[in-house]
Specification:
alpha/beta, Transcription Regulator spoIIAA, 5-stranded mixed sheet, 10 helices, 66% helix
Length: 272
C-alpha cells in the first residue's frame, strides 16, 4: 500500500506543480514549459519515495554525479530541492490540517529532502576536493617549472658547466640548486662548474654557507667549483661575514671564469 506521502503527491500533483511554477515564475521560459517541468519534478519525487533507502541513495549519487559536474549548478540544485520541499509540504498541510498522519507524512518528506540535500552536498564536497587536488598539482607543476628556470645549468663545453644564480637564495632554493647541480655533474661528467653569483640580490651568512656547501658537495663528485661574478661589495660582504672560502677559486666575472676553466683543460680561446 502506498505511503501517505505518495498518495498526497499523486492526488495533489497538479496543485504541487502549480506552486512550483509560481516559485520559478521569473524563469525566462514559456508557461507551458514551466508547467511540464514542474509536473516532471513531482513525478520524480513520487519515484524517489517508492525506492528503498539504499536504492535511493545509489540513485541520488548517480544523479548528482551526472547532472552536477559544474560547481555553478550546485546552487540552483539546492534551490530546486527546497522549492519542491516547500510545495510538497504545502500539499501535506492542505490534506491533513490537524492530524497525526500529517505529522508522519511531513517527517517522511523531511527525510527525503535531507537525503537529497546530502547527495548534492556530497557531490559538492567531491568536486571541491577534486579542484583542490588539481590546484595542488598545478602548483607543483608551476613550482617545478620555476625551479628549472631559476636554476638553469648550462653545458658550456665538454666537462664544463655554468650555473648562473639570480635573485634571492633561501634554504629551500639552495637545496634545489645543490640537488640539480649534482645531478647535472653526474650526467654531464663535468670537471668544472662556474657558479655565477652576479645576479644574487643579497648575501648573508646563510647564503654564503649554502654556496660553500654546494662547492664541497660538487668536489665529492670530482668536480671543481669556481665562483665567478665577485663584485667589490660582494667581496667586502664575504670579508665582513668572515666566510672561509678555503681553496675555492673566485674570479671577478664569467669571462675570466670561462678562460680559467678552459685553461684547466688545456684549452684556450684564440682569435682567428
Amino acid at each position: 500500500m502506498p505511503s501517505a506521502l505518495i498518495r498526497i503527491l499523486r492526488d495533489q500533483k497538479t496543485a504541487i506543480a502549480e506552486q512550483l511554477v509560481a516559485l520559478v515564475a521569473e524563469t525566462p521560459i514559456l508557461e507551458a514549459e514551466r508547467q511540464a517541468m514542474a509536473l516532471a519534478q513531482v513525478d520524480s519525487l513520487i519515484g524517489m519515495t517508492q525506492q528503498q533507502p539504499e536504492i535511493l541513495a545509489q540513485m541520488l549519487d548517480e544523479l548528482t554525479r551526472t547532472q552536477l559536474d559544474d560547481p555553478s549548478e550546485f546552487g540552483p540544485a539546492m534551490a530546486a530541492i527546497q522549492d519542491e520541499h516547500q510545495a510538497a509540504l504545502a500539499a501535506v498541510v492542505a490534506a491533513y490540517p490537524e492530524s497525526r498522519e500529517a505529522l508522519d507524512t511531513m517527517i517522511e518528506l523531511e527525510r527525503l529532502t535531507a537525503q537529497r540535500t546530502q547527495a548534492v552536498v556530497q557531490q559538492m564536497t567531491q568536486q571541491m576536493q577534486l579542484q583542490i587536488r588539481e590546484t595542488a598539482a598545478d602548483r607543483q607543476v608551476l613550482r617545478t617549472a620555476v625551479q628549472e628556470l631559476s636554476t638553469p645549468i648550462i653545458p658550456l663545453y665538454s666537462g664544463i658547466l655554468v650555473l648562473p644564480l639570480v635573485g634571492r637564495i633561501d634554504g629551500v632554493r639552495a637545496q634545489d640548486v645543490t640537488e640539480q647541480l649534482l645531478e647535472a655533474i653526474a650526467r654531464e661528467q663535468a670537471d668544472i662548474v662556474l657558479l655565477d653569483v652576479t645576479g644574487i640580490s643579497s648575501l648573508d651568512t646563510s647564503v654564503a654557507n649554502h654556496l660553500m656547501q654546494t662547492a664541497r658537495a660538487a668536489a665529492l663528485l670530482g668536480s671543481q667549483v669556481i665562483l665567478v661574478g665577485i663584485s667589490a661589495p660582494f667581496a667586502q660582504t664575504l670579508v665582513e661575514l668572515d666566510v672561509e672560502l678555503g681553496s675555492l677559486v673566485t674570479l671577478s666575472d664569467l669571462q675570466s671564469g670561462v678562460e680559467y676553466a678552459l685553461a684547466q683543460l688545456g684549452l684556450a680561446i684564440k682569435p682567428q
